[in-house]
Amino acid sequence: MRLSVDLKFEQLLAFVSQLPLREKKRLVKAVMQDIDQQEKEPTNLQKLLLSGPTWTDEEYKAFLEAQAEINQIANLNLVTR
């Protein structure tokens, strides 16, 4: 069963303020658990990045070698000027 109620924040706050202390504590605990769960879930950007392509070890090694060669050429150009 699903119940949907359209309440403004102030109305919700007024309703919560009428709860006994014990029920308020239960509510706070439940809300904090919900917040913690939502913070643990990856964002859309994180999901996109985690599902993106990755390099194999060989491809990464080739990239590092190419980068080292480019740096050597760049350093030679700076020295000869």
Description of the molecule:
With 81 residues, the chain is mainly α. It has one domain. The mean pLDDT is 90. It is 74% helix and 0% strand. The chain contains four helices and no strands. The chain has helices at 9-17, 21-40, 44-50, 57-80.
Report the total helices: 4
Q: Globular, elongated, flat, extended or rod-shaped: what is the shape?
A: rod-shaped
Which segments are poorly predicted (pLDDT under 50) over 5 or more consecutive residues? none
Structural class: mainly alpha
The portion of residues assigned to helices is over 70%
Average pLDDT: 90
Intertermini distance: 78 Å
* Elements, N to C (H/E): HHHH
Extended strand count: 0
- Percent strand equals under 5%
Q: How many domains would you count in the coordinates?
A: 1
Largest sheet: none
Radius of gyration over alpha carbons? 28 Å
What is the topology?
Layout (H helix, E strand, L loop, with lengths): L8 H9 L3 H20 L3 H7 L6 H24 L1
